[in-house]
Amino acid sequence: MRKIKCRLFLVCFLMTLVLNGCGRGGEILYFDRETAGDGSAREHVDGLPQGSLSSEEQSAVAEAAANATADIDRQICVHVCGQVCQPGVVMLPEGSRAWEAVEAAGGLSGDAEESAVNLAAMLRDGERLYIPSVGEKISETDSGTDGGLVNLNTADAAGLQTLPGIGESRAADILSYREKNGGFRSVEEIMLVPGIKESIYEKIKDKITTD
After folding, report:
1. Distance (Å, whole) CA 30 – CA 27
2. 94-126: per-residue pLDDT in tens?
3. Residue 143 contacts by C-beta under 8 Å, 6 or more apart in sequence?
4. Which of 110, 112, 104 is closest to 79 using CA atoms?
5. Are 31 and 46 in contact (CB under 8 A)?
6. Helix or strand or coil: residue 34?
7. Cα distance between residue 6 and residue 206, in whole Å
8. By the 8 A CB rule, do 146 and 209 touch?
9. What's the rounded Cα separation, in Å, for the pair 96 and 154?
10. CA distance 129 to 114
């Protein structure tokens, strides 16, 4: 039983090291317990060849390393501009919200109109997040329209309500769907929003975009 517990401790410790990028000279670090000449036990850290692990333990460590690498790869790039302390491009984990991008850009400046932006909105890779100043009139580009087209992924409620058949309630449903699903991948996807069927889609399909 003691041997089994030691092995379980070893596997957990190795997975922790892999997830935190710890290592030394290509070796795997581990804790070992040995008995000194006086019969007392002591722990030390040393290099352990991977061959010393069972196949199950090696698989667990390899899977942990693969998962850690995958988590690192899942990043999005967002351009934060306007009234933030450090405007520019920031890298964030996939699934991040607008407030996290603002924090990464140094936070809101003293002139920022916070209420003009949905800080709870989920961000997409390549998105531009613009924070207006107090009293600033938002341009068509910043309010989510592009060349006369309403962008389903960036438009606010007011911009969405410029579309035929889209009132306050349906605009709110579109924003809710966008937040829950990480944005629209095609204009046809808007028909998945409750209350928006093919008849409405036919009226607005030439007036909307997702790019």
Report:
1. 10
2. 989 989 999 999 999 988 888 888 888 888 788
3. 155, 156, 158, 159
4. 104
5. no
6. strand
7. 65
8. yes
9. 15
10. 12
